[in-house]
Amino acid sequence: MTNQSDAIRLTRLPSGLTVVTERMDRVETVSLGAYVAAGTRNELASENGASHFLEHMAFKGTEKRNAAQIAEEIENVGGQINAYTAREQTAYYVKVLKEDMALGTDIIGDILTHSTFDPDEMERERGVILQEIGQANDTPDDIIFDHFQDIAFANQPMGRPVLGTEDLIRGMRRDTLMNYMKRHYTASNIVVAAAGNLEHERFLDLVQQHFADLPNLAAPAAQPGIYTGGEFREDRDLDQVHICLGFPTVGYKDPMYYPSMLLATVLGGGMSSRLFQEVREKRGLVYSIYAFASPYQDGGLFGIYAGTGESEAAELIPVTLEELAKVQHQVTLAELNRARAQVKASLLMSLESPGSRCEQIARQIQVFGRIMPTEETVAKINAVSVDDIQHAAAAIFRAAPTLATMGPAGQVPDITRISEALAA
Asked: Which residue in the list 47, 55, 125, 335 is annotated as catalytic?
């Protein structure tokens, strides 16, 4: 079955594999990738880190290419190949000149269907991932978000770290990766997308050729994420205390998604935002402070991150909580319009990049089951009112909070006091 618009075409193959392209005539490149609807939240407790380990191993050799050949074949034509693992998705992608689209499709298909998981390569990559975990643990403004996620979704897949734990990675077996791949890397669970200077029918032919060996099975459903909230503290010997305060919010499909996204921009989305102006510019309490809205299929997290000195934390938290209270009742049209302009500009600028567009159309298929026209997204952003933002703030900031701190956090009030202040 094929759906067609002026530039975007989508074909669902009998196997269940979805192929979607967007033609961009004014570029000389093609970005293409395979987007697997499986990530950390799809892992069993005993295999936490398997999605990420598998992503690493995909580049370590197939039945017809060793690890060096995979890299050399792409770089011989000036292309780029990479991958990432997230909580709900694992992606493998390349960017090549338009005349090298066939090679790019061949290599991505090869690593997804014919990886060998060579035991020697696996041992080497196990060491690399352990180094990656160690580096993350040594970076407090990075690892704080893992602790935040773990407390927000305690004892469930949604809260586990993307990299896994040292103990699990040390003990992870080859058959664990192969069984995980067999369960989740199925035709119906993958979108193969491309954007750039291409013809849909040509790309479709290449996908049918190089992805033909994907298993035609139904992938198991992910466990729902159930927000728990709570508090995590680690008293490290650091110059700064790193603080992440957050709340449950909505997923992509909820009507409050766009108001919550604009709320994050108003509150802490740039140099003109309330938190940046009040906390950094007026009071000099931090170098970095920002807000974020992280949506998932079935919920999400709204958070505020700040890094500050031990003594400054005593003033930082009350000031931040005061801003969370104010935004529930006082948002100006000027603030909304500025946030709206920032979000729309980011969206529209991303449309100029084949790589960004390739990822967007794949993600939209997996989240919404369709490509959402840009005009529809812009209309939803334009429809958000001041009242919508205030109502979103009231709903979010009156929920049970999650607090994670690392460093000298003696001046940071505990979660009970924070909850009381928010309820006042």
From this structure: 55
